[in-house]
Design brief:
Elements lengths: L1 H7 L3 H23 L4 H28 L8 H12 L9 E3 L5 E3 L3 H4 L5 E2 H4 L15 E2 L8 H8 L18 E2 L22 E2 L9 E7 L2 E6 L4 E5 L5 H10 L8 H4 L20 E6 L2 H11 L10 H5 L23 E9 L2 E6 L4 E5 L3 E5 L1 E5 L4 E2 L9 E2 L4
Parallel strand pairs: 11-14
Antiparallel strand pairs: 1-2, 3-16, 4-7, 5-9, 6-17, 7-8, 8-15, 9-14, 10-15, 11-12, 12-13
């Protein structure tokens, strides 16, 4: 009997092996269900992707229903449709929103991917500035850079100087200012001199704001701020202009001692991406420099560069009359009737600036806050609709 019981019993080793096998099977099962690539997570990801795709499709259908059957619409139209479908209160420059199920969905590509029914920039652009119904240098474009946020102030502080976050002009060396959180990045910073403060809209007698067509190259549009959305305080001192050049453009001047001046350590290059609204198809942003203005003059006025400025070429590029008033299409976008820096050294201690009052370039040698003008380049995929331009009748100055 004892021998028979031993033959029918389960040994301890067999029991341990059985338990180990069961644990392994349980682990595999659990991993399959809830692991990083498990069935549950994959089902969740699929649900999120489906929700996002359905939301985008609903937005696209809403755009076609609310606006044009051919799919032509502006950034503002996209935002309105997003608000309608998601019930979210989002701003013009928003790149993401949440679906009704609470999932994050990207809306940044909606403008580009759904502007295919528009007209290619190259087919619409007229460099001569004479053809009616065409796109011309100086046209106002329906682009928006959104509003100033607290995060912008943090980003700007990365240059080494805290922005003043005030409509007051900056007074500290290398400081940005003249604007505040909640204001529009499409607007104008406080001018250096209120006696000649920005080109005016003839219909409203208020300073113009927004964005104008600066250049078209290989189908890529570059816009320029109509006014000066920021002020910048450049100090007067030897080599100070090199520091300003680096902060504004990221360029280390060949005459600058980067280590001694604290470039990349004490001072950082400004990031202008806050002006990039990807919903509108923007890809990059920078500031207007002397070199960029020289190239612009050489291309569009057949003069070697901005150094050859005269009252005629400065103010009357594409102008059609002699009274500083025209149809708003061809007026010089270089003259916005304010003082603004060109972000390039005139000498080691001062920076080039556009002196609109005297219609010439100069080098500022005082501790002054002048404006800066921002350039935004759009994707080559951008196509324009009949809503893309916003014609204004503008007045440069009273005469």
């Amino acid at each position: 009997m004892k021998r028979i019981c031993r033959e029918k019993g389960i040994t301890l080793i067999s029991l341990v092996v059985t338990i180990i096998i069961l644990l392994i099977l349980a682990g595999v099962t659990i991993s399959t269900l809830i692991g990083n690539n498990g069935l549950i997570n994959r089902a969740r990801d699929a649900s999120i992707a489906t929700d996002a795709a359905e939301t985008k499709e609903q937005i696209q259908l809403e755009l076609m229903r609310r606006y044009n059957e051919d799919g032509r619409y502006t950034n503002s139209d996209v935002i309105a449709a997003v608000k309608q479908i998601t019930s979210n209160d989002i701003e013009e420059g928003a790149e993401t929103t949440t679906t009704k199920k609470g999932n994050i969905v990207s809306i940044a590509e909606l403008w580009v991917s759904n502007s295919g029914a528009g007209v290619k920039v190259g087919d619409l652009f007229d460099e001569s500035g004479t053809e009616e119904g065409k796109l011309h240098i100086g046209d106002f474009i329906n682009y928006t850079a959104g509003t100033w946020k607290d995060t912008d102030m943090v980003t700007i502080a990365g240059t080494g100087v805290t922005p003043n976050n005030s409509t007051d002009k900056p007074t500290t060396n290398y400081q940005f200012g003249g604007f505040a959180v909640g204001g529009s990045r499409d607007g104008n910073a406080t001018p250096n001199n209120t006696s000649y403060a920005y080109v005016r809209d003839a219909s409203t007698d208020s300073a113009i704001t927004g964005w104008r067509l600066f250049d078209v190259s290989d189908g890529v549009m570059t816009l320029i701020s109509a006014g000066c959305p920021e002020d910048y305080c450049n100090p007067n001192g030897t080599n100070y202009a090199y520091i300003s050049e680096y902060i504004l453009t990221g360029n280390v001047n060949s005459s600058a001692d980067a280590t001694t001046l604290g470039l990349e350590t004490t001072y950082k290059a400004r990031n202008w991406d806050m002006y990039v609204n990807r919903t509108c198809g923007a890809e990059s942003a920078s500031v207007l420099t002397k070199a960029k203005l020289d190239a612009w003059y050489a291309k569009y006025t057949n003069t070697p560069g901005a150094d050859t400025l005269t009252a005629t070429t400065f103010q009357k590029i594409y102008k059609t009359d002699t009274n500083c008033v025209n149809d708003g299409m061809y007026e010089s976008l270089i003259d916005n009737y304010s003082l603004y820096y060109l972000s390039s050294p005139f000498r080691s201690y001062n920076v080039y600036y556009v002196d609109s009052a005297r219609m010439k370039l100069n080098g500022n040698s005082n501790d002054d806050a002048f404006g800066v003008r921002v350039l935004v380049s759009l994707s080559s995929d951008i196509k324009l609709s009949d809503k893309a331009t916003d014609t204004k009748t503008v007045v440069s100055r009273s005469k």
